[in-house]
Amino acid sequence: MRLNDALADGALATPDETALVDASTGETWTVSELDAAVERTAGRLAALSVEAGDHLALVMSPRPASMRIIHAALRLGAVLVPLSHDLTPPELQPRLDGTDVSIVLCDERTETAVATGTKLPIASVDDPTQDRVQALQTVEAVDPPRHDWAGSDTALLAHTSGTTGDAKAVVLTATNLLTSAIASAARLGIAPDDRWLVTLPLHHVGGVSPVLRMPLYGSTVVLRRGFDPGPCVDDVNEFGVTRVSLVPTMLRQMLDRRGTLPGSLRTVLLGGAPAPVSLVRRCRNYSVPVAPTYGLTETASQVATATTGEAYTDPETVGRPILFSDVTVVDEDGTPLPPGEVGEIVVNGPTVSPRYYGDIRATAAARGPHGLHTSDVGYRAEDGRLYDYNRLDDRVLTGGELVDPGEVVDAVRSHPEGGEAAVAGLDDEEWGERVAALVVGDGDAEKLDNHLRERLAGYKLPRVIGIADDLPRTDSGTVDRVALRERLAVIRESPGPDELSDRA
Asked: Which CATH code for domain 395-493?
């Protein structure tokens, strides 16, 4: 399976169709205009000695220039390494060094951090402020060669969120990206008249995927330069957006700000973290076409996705595995479990990354006879629907008993005042760990504790219950486990009037 230059093909087939909309300015590019801009960018990168196989880091805020560089890298056969524009120099350096980057592309917002964090060659899409930074726009373009992609070629190095440890660089091949695009289109019913609002960060697969797939689908990207809940809803309405990828927190904020979402939407793809049942039901009540999904950086995005109809009738499921994805649930010994039994989710198929870059041990540890061990806990129903609970690494070992946080969260949600929640283990000299829960809302921890005592075994009960306005999350939407434990530790020492600390 080969990944050809779909943008160039599109410029021949549908040159006048809209390819890109800059939501901040309303400026648009046709397919032929975007193709010409990508060709110039590729020529400038080639003049800077970027060639097939080189690792090109993109450290920029989302903007049309980002999209041009992404497709220019594809045209040249360079390996794209997208990194967060919020990283500090100490955070950037190990990621750049660990992925053997040859050149870094930045903008005025990130120039200082990049220049401080690396001695690598740097080019900026804006006017540089430092002498060692090259202005990309002043480079005289050459005629760029076009790479003929083989399926096994590495196209993207995407970092995991790193919520439970150091972020790992995931190798995604041309086959990984192409099969994921095909499978997603098949499940969602993507059409050439679709307009996809991109408001997720471009250094995560959920953000960069619509940008990569746009020419394959013949659709339009509506690119935002950052997330703002109210204006995001307005953009959906103004630009006739039909699809959008969000994490649960983003969707909730958009609904809080505007009440509902415009009727042009065909799909609100919801991933990054398990979708709260209350949020899915809220979408059903307001006819928001929500599609909860379960995916990984290591699978180039989706593994399973629920249709809107499935979500409305069963708000706890993330749907059935998409095309090409084979899902197995296994026990601690790696033995497949029957439907309904909770265990670790294992994924296999052509969307699965072949390895972590430069990390043989992590690659070997994640592989088993049934595929990639995700460290996520869940189960499959008889009809194939998948249910995702939590990270395996998040399980709490207290007094020799293992507690799955997802089970505790479900019990919290069953309370009339229960909402979003996250559960973690806090160090304890006597028990090893104590279960602790952070609950979103205005609830009373005492009442919640009484409710949980009726539904959970004693060792599963949270000994610390905190009340918060929101859960701490990474920019990919997953719960920030480090920040969660830090916040719960503070509550343990100094609980608020409606909170509990070290309840026996």
From this structure: 3.30.300.30
